[in-house]
Design goal:
By secondary structure, the chain is an alpha+beta fold. It has one domain: Thiol Ester Dehydrase, Chain A. Helix content is 25%, strand content 31%. It is built from 3 helices and 6 strands. The strands form 2 sheets. It has a 4-stranded antiparallel beta sheet, covered by helices on one side. It has a two-stranded antiparallel sheet with strand order 1-6. It is elongated and about 45 Å long.
């Protein structure tokens, strides 16, 4: 059909949030090293227009609110013509890697968000 397979959008959302965190110096690798896992518990995608093969897509990821046990992101994907392709959101939960139980957002992440004036 020449269009991007709908299942790829979950990966685009992941790229958006991991790069959003990385831009502030927080990596998944570091979180895992400090005993924190961050699994997705909810993903919502609203398709507005098809993306086609070879389109240049931009992913805009924003934080919805100050994280607690959960962290929530809004996502907008546009093409090279600045046309809105989809909107969506993801919710993830901070978990202790050993106990597999939810925990509050680590202080180093909260401090980073405050330093970047995101909360």
């Amino acid at each position: 059909m020449g269009v991007v397979y709908h299942g790829n959008y979950a990966q685009y959302f992941e790229i958006g949030r991991t790069e959003w965190l990385r831009s502030m110096g927080v990596t998944y690798k570091y979180m895992e090293k400090t005993g924190i896992m961050l699994p997705v518990i909810s993903l919502n995608c609203n398709f507005k227009k098809s993306a086609y093969y070879d389109d240049l897509l931009s992913i805009k990821t924003t934080l919805k609110k100050e994280p607690g046990v959960r962290i929530e992101f809004s996502v907008e994907i546009t093409n090279q013509n600045n046309e809105l392709i989809c909107t969506g959101s993801t919710t993830l939960v901070f978990m202790d890697a050993t106990t597999k139980r939810p925990v509050k957002c680590p202080e180093y992440i909260l401090n980073t968000l405050k330093e970047n004036q995101l909360i």
